[in-house]
Amino acid sequence: MEKLLVVALGGGIGATTRYLAATWAADKLGTGFPYGTLMVNVAGCFLIGLFMDLTTQRFIVSPYWRLLVSVGFLGGLTTFSSYSYETFKLLQEASLSLAVYNILANLVVGFLATWLGIMAARLI
Questions:
Q1: Mean pLDDT across 1-30
Q2: d(CA 83, CA 36)
Q3: Per residue in 45-89, pLDDT tens?
């Protein structure tokens, strides 16, 4: 039961952070492209690379911290389901080029951010 509460706490914080980031991105960058989703997916990829490498290779932390951060917070923050739906909507609106851009940007930049997070962790 404790593990569920830890995941729920992290997930609530992550989901709230995602909402705030998406709202900010829509206000600042417009709604023609899902910049907020891309932003949180890339940030989440970086953070999971950094956090998991640090907590499995360098520092001993409680499994509860890993659950709170990686499963809870980052699970609530990153938005693969939103990404999938928004990409589908781009395709549905006959915007193949934006849909492909969204897929490639999330995949390539997200993978790069994960690698950068791991590299950053190894420099600490």
A1: 96
A2: 10
A3: 999 989 999 998 889 899 999 999 999 999 999 978 778 888 988
SS3 sequence, the chain?
Answer: CHHHHHHHHHHHHHHHHHHHHHHHHHHHHCCCCCHHHHHHHHHHHHHHHHHHHHHHHHCCCCHHHHHHHHHHHHHHHCCHHHHHHHHHHHHHCCCHHHHHHHHHHHHHHHHHHHHHHHHHHHHC
Which pLDDT score, from 0 to 100, does residue 30 have?
A: 96
Q: Quote the tokens at residue 37.
A: 């989703």
Segments forming the whole domain that contains residue 56 = 2-123
Would the pLDDT of 25 be above 90? yes
The total number of structural domains in the chain stands at 1
Cβ–Cβ under 8 Å, residues 37 and 83: yes
- Residues 73, 12: Cα–Cα separation, whole Å: 7
Closest by CA position to 36, among listed 15, 50, 52, 56: 15
Q: Which residue has the tokens 């900010």?
A: 24
